[in-house]
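note to self: dont lose this again. the chain is below, predicted strucutre after it. 234 aa total, dont forget to put it in the shared folder this time
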Amino acid sequence: MKFTFIPFFSFLLLLSSVNASEATEKVWTEPVVVEPKYDGVPVAAPAGAVILFDGVDASKWKQLPRKEDADQTDRFRWKVENGYMEVVPRSGMISLLQPVITSGHLHIEWATPAEVKGNGQGRGNSGIFIGGFPELQVLDSYENKTYFDGQAGAFYKHRPPLVNACRNPGEWQCYDIHIERAKTAGPSVVTVYQNNVLVQDHEKFPGEVKAGLLQLQDHLNPVRFRNIWFKPAP
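---
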């Protein structure tokens, strides 16, 4: 007698496999909104810090043009004015010339546009890329819903922030990023404060990158950055 149930059982196995795959996906809870603890005043660099951008001199940076851009040189094209640099949409992301981000404390101040346009990922979107780690998201997440591991303070598509500590659109915000690079085969560890509130607590990442570049994203929004410095660990 011919066995006729194999396709049905195959279907059950496939369904089981799909369910198992879905079960492994992380389901995040929405970060609660908390009061930021930063007033928007520039934070002075401590002794021993390397100034990466002082509001005037962008000579340590280069352009990484988009593929569709007619100008494929590394000529810096973001605006530099009034003590900040601003994304020029469609010019491409920018990068430090040298990989100076080792273990230590990286400080970056940023502001999304005061005039709110769009919503979700289309509102004040940019990102901070440190060699060896996922993107640290920059976004206007003040009363702006999006997926939790894509909002401000998230390691994009890796882990949402512990809380939502965003200031109002147009106001200056800050990230303090504390990096412990792996000394052996063990993981590197990153802790992040947004507006002096803990948003990433000792997140571990595999790899042995000893010194990485710092890159800032052009995501088609005129996000501003200022007062960028890095103090290497002793």
